[in-house]
Design a protein that fits this description.
By secondary structure, the chain is α/β, with parallel strands linked by helices. The termini are far apart. The chain is about 30% helix and about 15% strand.
C-alpha cells in the first residue's frame, strides 16, 4: 500500500523497465516489441508516485487524465478501477499508453524528473487498459438520457474517436464516417503492428460502438456526401477530423522511379492492407535488400523497421540533420538502434538513378553541416560543396511529413483554410468559419501527435455540447 511507504523510500525506487522482445528475434516478426508490465512491476512503478499536492504531471496531459488518482488505484491493486478513472477523460488509454510521447508531456513535468527519472505514466496507462480488456472487466460508462441532437464526425482517427466518445456520454447521437474500410485513421494505416497492434485499436473502437456510437466505413465525405448534405439530413453539428493524409515529396530528379514510395503508401500497404502477413494476404510491396528511408520522425522509424522486417540486409535512415535534431521519440530511435538500423546523419539525397526498366538502383547524396537555427528552432542543414557520393538502393521510402487532406476543404463552401491548406479553427473550441462545423487534429495543425489530436477532440466536444444546448 502506498501509505505504508515513506516518501524518501518511494524516491529511491528505480524506474521499472518494461520487458521486451529480444532485438535478434523481433526483427523477424511484426509482434509488438514491449511485452508490457506485469502486475508486480506496475504496482512497484506506481509506488514511485509522490502524490504531489500540485500534480504538475497533469499540466502536461492534453486530455486531463487524473494521473495521481489512477496511479494510487494501481498501488492498491485496483487495476480495473484505474482504467475506469482514466476513461473518465480519455477514450483511448490503450492507444495513448503505447504511442503518446509521454516523455515530452506528462512525464517531463513529473516532480521526480528533477532529480531522478519520472514515473512511467504511459507504461502504467497501457498496463491498466490492457488489464481491463484482457480480464473482460470493461464496463459501459454512464450515458446521459438522449438529447435528440445528432452529430456527424468525419474521420475516425484519434480526434474523431475522442469527440465521439465524449459526446455519446452526454446523450447526443453520434455517427462517425470513415473513408477507409476500417476505423482508426492513422492508428491503423500509419503505425505498424510492432508498435500498435490493430487488435488494440479495434477494441477501443468496439468500446465506443458498445456505448452507442454508429460507425460508417468506406464512406467518403466530400464525395458521397458533402458537409451541407449532412446538415440537410438532420445532423445538428459536424466535426472534421480527417487528418494529414497527403504525403510530401522532395522534388528531386528521379523521384518517380519504381521502388520509391511515400511513407503513407508503404505503411498503408503493410499495416492496413496487411502486406506483412504475406501468408494470408496478397498485398504487393517491394521488400528490397537495400532500403533507405528519408526522414527522422516516428514515421521514418516505423518505415525503416518495417523494411528490416521484410528482410532487408541494409535498412538505413538518411537524415539531413544530426541525431540530436531528430523529431522521433527517443524510445523509437533506441529500438531502431537495437535492431541494427543504420543511421546516416547530415546527409541529403539530391537525385535518384534507375535501371533500364525504370527501377531505382542508386541514390546520389551530399553531406551537410549545421548552420544557424531556422524557423523551427533547429539548426539549418547546409550542403558541403563537392561532398557528393552514391548509395546503392532498391527501395526508398520518403518520410518527410504530410500535408492536410484537401478533399473536404475543397468541397465545402465557406470553409476557411490557411496557406498550407489546413482548416482554420479556434484553438479553444475548434469552431471553423462555418456555423456548426468544428475541426481538430492534423487537419488543423498539420502532422502532430495522437494525444494532441485527442486533446483537440476534447475541446471541440465541449464546445459542440455548448452549441447544441443553445440551438
Amino acid at each position: 500500500m502506498l501509505g505504508q511507504i515513506e516518501k524518501k523510500l518511494r524516491m529511491k525506487i528505480p524506474r521499472q523497465q518494461m520487458p521486451a522482445q529480444d532485438p535478434k528475434e523481433r526483427i523477424h516478426n511484426f509482434k509488438e516489441v514491449p511485452n508490457g508490465f506485469t502486475p508486480a512491476l506496475a504496482v512497484k512503478e506506481a509506488q514511485r508516485c509522490l502524490q504531489c499536492k500540485k500534480a504538475t504531471c497533469m499540466d502536461g496531459c492534453p486530455v486531463d487524465v487524473d494521473i495521481p488518482g489512477f496511479l494510487q488505484l494501481i498501488t492498491e491493486g485496483r487495476f480495473s478501477d484505474a482504467a475506469k478513472q482514466i476513461k473518465l477523460t480519455n477514450s483511448l488509454p490503450a492507444v495513448c499508453g503505447r504511442v503518446c510521447p509521454q516523455e515530452e508531456q506528462c512525464e517531463i513535468t513529473c516532480v521526480l524528473a528533477k532529480k531522478f527519472t519520472p514515473v512511467a505514466i504511459g507504461h502504467l496507462e497501457r498496463f491498466v487498459a490492457d488489464w481491463e480488456r484482457e480480464h473482460n472487466e470493461t464496463e459501459i460508462p454512464e450515458i446521459a438520457p438522449p438529447t435528440g441532437k445528432r452529430i456527424a464526425v468525419v474521420g475516425s482517427g484519434p480526434a474523431g474517436l475522442t469527440v465521439a466518445g465524449d459526446l455519446i456520454k452526454l446523450g447526443h447521437a453520434v455517427t462517425v464516417f470513415e473513408a477507409l474500410h476500417k476505423e482508426g485513421g492513422v492508428l491503423v494505416y500509419g503505425i505498424p503492428e510492432f508498435r500498435l497492434p490493430k487488435a488494440i485499436v479495434k477494441a477501443e473502437v468496439d468500446f465506443l460502438a458498445s456505448m452507442g456510437v454508429e460507425f460508417k466505413s468506406s464512406y467518403v465525405i466530400g464525395r458521397i456526401k458533402g458537409i451541407d448534405e449532412l446538415f440537410e439530413e438532420g445532423y445538428d453539428a459536424v466535426f472534421i477530423g480527417t487528418g494529414a493524409g497527403l504525403p510530401n515529396f522532395m522534388g528531386v530528379p528521379g523521384e518517380n522511379l519504381n521502388g520509391i514510395y511515400s511513407a503513407n503508401e508503404y505503411l498503408t500497404r503493410s499495416n492496413l492492407m496487411r502486406a506483412f502477413d504475406f501468408e494470408s494476404h496478397g498485398t504487393p510491396v517491394m521488400a528490397g535488400n537495400s532500403v533507405a528511408v528519408l526522414g527522422g520522425g516516428n514515421t521514418a522509424m516505423d518505415s525503416v523497421r518495417t523494411g528490416l522486417r521484410f528482410g532487408a540486409e541494409h535498412a538505413r535512415i538518411i537524415y539531413r540533420r544530426s541525431r540530436k535534431e531528430m523529431p522521433a521519440r527517443e524510445e523509437e530511435i533506441h529500438h531502431a538502434e537495437e535492431e541494427g538500423i543504420e543511421f546516416q546523419f547530415l546527409t541529403a539525397p539530391i537525385r535518384f538513378l534507375g535501371d533500364e526498366n525504370g527501377w531505382v538502383k542508386q541514390m546520389e547524396c551530399i553531406k551537410m553541416e549545421l548552420g544557424e537555427p531556422d524557423s523551427s528552432g533547429r539548426r539549418r542543414p547546409v550542403p558541403i560543396k563537392d561532398s557528393n557520393y552514391m548509395i546503392d538502393v532498391d527501395t526508398v521510402v520518403i518520410a518527410i511529413g504530410n500535408s492536410s487532406n484537401p478533399l473536404i476543404p475543397r468541397t465545402t463552401p465557406g470553409l476557411e483554410t490557411n496557406k498550407w491548406g489546413n482548416i482554420v479553427a479556434d484553438d479553444e473550441t475548434g469552431l471553423t468559419s462555418r456555423k456548426g462545423v468544428y475541426a481538430g487534429g492534423d487537419i488543423v495543425t498539420g502532422g502532430a501527435t495522437v494525444i494532441l489530436a485527442a486533446g483537440a477532440g476534447k475541446k471541440a466536444a465541449r464546445a459542440i455540447d455548448d452549441y447544441l444546448k443553445n440551438l
